[in-house]
Structure formats: structure tokens, C-alpha cells
Amino acid sequence: MTQTGEDTARRRGRDETEEERADRMWGELIQEVRVAQTGVQILFGFLLTVVFQPKYQSLSDTDQVIYIVTVVLGAAATGALIGPVSLHRLVSGRRVKPQAVRWASRLTFVGLVLLLATMTASLVLILRVATHGGFVPWLVALVVAWYLLCWFVLPLWTRRRYTS
Predict the structure, then answer these.
(1) Which residues contact 103 (CB under 8 A, 6 or more apart)?
(2) Rounded CA gap, 122 and 96, in Å?
(3) N or C, which end of the chain is more exposed by having fewer CB within 10 Å?
(4) What is the pLDDT of residues 109-153, one digit of tens each?
(5) pLDDT digits (tens, 9 = 90+) for 82-100
(6) CA distance 107 to 33
(7) Which secondary structure element, helix H or strand E, spans residue 105, and what is its range?
(8) Contact 84, 29 (CB under 8 A)
């Protein structure tokens, strides 16, 4: 084979310009963000109502601190996961889509990490209040391990295993 033929035979992926790739990646990213945004917004909305419940005053100081940390983490996750929409809106038409996609992707990743932290703190708080059991840390660790496997380990393994 000629050099060009070898390149063609070995080449994988799409034949697209940088702009076409950015458009495709933006569409994919927005679909992913929509799923995460919905989840974090529902969780955050629920968290905001807890402080107005009569039971809140009877929580221990530790549980109230866990609650406050959870709300702050939820707010940060919400900001990071809504950030890509704002980024796109503010730079739209400025011919910086490839750069915007990279930043939006980073914001989404940070948002997922913050969502993981929010889910963990929420689980700790709910299980502490609901059970007062010594098994709570173990159960939370098990669920967090599941999140890590589903959200990060499996995707990273797939990326490493199936990309050259």
C-alpha cells in the first residue's frame, strides 16, 4: 500500500472539520448535561425544603453541618452543570465553539464530581437521621463505590480498552 492507502486503512473515526466536530460534540454534551441537570436540580430543590421542616431544629449539630455542606455542594453542582448552557449562550456566534466545547466539557466533569459529593453527603445525612446505625458509613461507602464504578471507572476502562 502507498503511504496514503495505509493512512486511510488505519484511520478510524469521522471525516469532519474542527467546526463539524465541535457541533457534534456540543450536541452530545448538551444531551448529557440535560440528564445530570435534571437530577441535580430535583435533589437541590428537595434539599432547600429540609431546613423549613419542623424536624430540622431537632437535628444534632453534626447533622445540621452535614446538611449545610450538602446544600452548598448541591448549589455548586447546579452551577457547574448549568454553566455549559450559559457559556454557549454568551459565546454563541463568536467562532469559538471548539474552545467552548472544551470548557463546557470541563464544567460538566466538575459538575459530576460535585454531584457525586452532593449525593454522598445527602445519603450520609438521610441514613444518619433515618437509622442512627453504625453501618451507615459502610452503606454509604458501598453506594459511593457503585457511583464511582458507573460514572468514572467503567467509562475510563472503556476509553482505555477500545481507543488506540
Answers:
(1) 84, 87
(2) 38
(3) C
(4) 999 999 999 999 999 999 999 998 899 999 999 999 999 999 999
(5) 999 999 999 988 999 999 9
(6) 10
(7) helix 97-131
(8) yes
**To 10 degrees, what angle do helices 61-91 and 97-131 make?**
160
Closest CA to 80 of 54, 49, 105: 105
**Dist. CA 109–CA 70, nearest whole Å:** 19
Nearest to 120 by CA among 75, 66, 82, 56: 66
The pTM (predicted TM-score) of the whole model is 0.86
Look up cell 440528564; give the residue.
Answer: 35
For residues 38 and 82, what is the distance between their CA atoms, to the nearest angstrom?
A: 10
The C-alpha atoms of residue 38 and residue 22 are separated, in whole angstroms, by 24
Contact at 8 Å (CB) between 133 and 127? yes
Can you count the helices (H) and strands (E) in the chain?
6, 0
